[in-house]
Amino acid sequence: MYEEISSNIRRSWAMIIIFIIFVAYLGYIFGELTEFGYAGVFFALLVAGAMSWTGYYYSDRIVLAMSRAREVEKVELPYLYNVIEGLSIAAGVPVPKMYVIEDSAPNAFATGRDPEHSAVAVTTGLLEKLDRVELEGVVAHEMSHIKNYDIKLASLAVVMVGIVTLLADWLMRSFWWGGSRRRRDDGGGEFGAILMIVGLIMAILAPVVAQLMRLALSRQREFLADASGAMLTRYPEGLASALEKLASDREPLEVANKATAHLYIVNPLKDIGGSINNLFNTHPKIEERVAKLRAMSFEVV
């Protein structure tokens, strides 16, 4: 199990490093094609950073509001609070705020920027349809997202996608502003023509590539949270059984949308299918997650 966690961490950070190199290269092309030069790149990153800072500190409130989640106290749901409190002690993190979504579809997510500013939200359907060991498995999975700082990682991924999209949009605009004319006037010659072609391709493909990398990163973090959650409960079968129940439930989560779908423990958008669409899936296949959990159970028990 520890090898599985270490492997997922390495793959996740490798994706982040590639992501950063990709953003840096896009910024270089943008600077070469515009009259702003490196000052333009600095200004673009400054604007993107300011926008991302706002999203980073307030994204949890936005997500909870979009999901119509309401905060509940211990006296209202002592059963859920005891599960969250017990797993918080096991994980060594502060008890997160507890939220409930009034929806009969079973699902859950964690949000926040660190363990000290975190929240766990579950649907009423989850509380009604899972038994205690299955609920503990789901909460342990979400607690692992908090403990592993996945909630912060998700925010960083959104920031990087935002920067790529912004730079790609500005690249396209630079063509309209006469970037090609500047290259010819400066005697860029063959190098300038090649840079123009590369810039055009990057402007078109960069947002799609960035989004695919963010989704791939999200899928890797789900595997890691499954493994970490199994370690917390010492009973991987609880989470495996819960995942099967959640996957077999065909009731759509009404408050879910494409912006928040990647946060949930299973994809709340049920209509994604096909080999191409799987690239844009926010979660790994349930069958693969369950198989990994049951393989781990032999090592834990």
Description of the molecule:
This protein has 10 helices and 4 strands; from the N terminus they run H-H-E-H-E-E-E-H-H-H-H-H-H-H. With 301 residues, the chain is of the alpha+beta class. Helices cover 68% and strands 7% of the residues. It has helices at residues 2-33, 37-66, 78-91, 124-129, 132-147, 150-176, 179-185, 189-233, 236-248, 286-300; strands at residues 69-71, 97-101, 108-114, 117-123. It has a 4-stranded mixed β-sheet, with helices on both faces.
Summarize the structure.
This protein is of the alpha+beta class and 301 residues long.
Features:
single chain; 301 residues; alpha+beta; four-stranded mixed beta sheet; 4 strands; 68% helix; 7% strand
Topology:
Layout: H1 2-33, H2 37-66, E1 69-71, H3 78-91, E2 97-101, E3 108-114, E4 117-123, H4 124-129, H5 132-147, H6 150-176, H7 179-185, H8 189-233, H9 236-248, H10 286-300
Helix pairs in contact: 1-2, 1-6, 1-8, 2-6, 3-5, 5-8, 5-9, 6-8, 7-8, 8-9, 8-10, 9-10
Rg on CA atoms, Å:
22 Å
Order of helices and strands: HHEHEEEHHHHHHH
Q: Which word captures the global form?
A: elongated
Largest sheet: 4 strands, mixed
Mean pLDDT: 79
Q: State the distance separating the first and last CA atoms.
A: 12 Å
The proportion of strand residues reads: 5-15%
Number of helices: 10
- Work out the number of β strands: 4
Q: Tell me the strand order in the biggest sheet.
A: 1-2-4-3
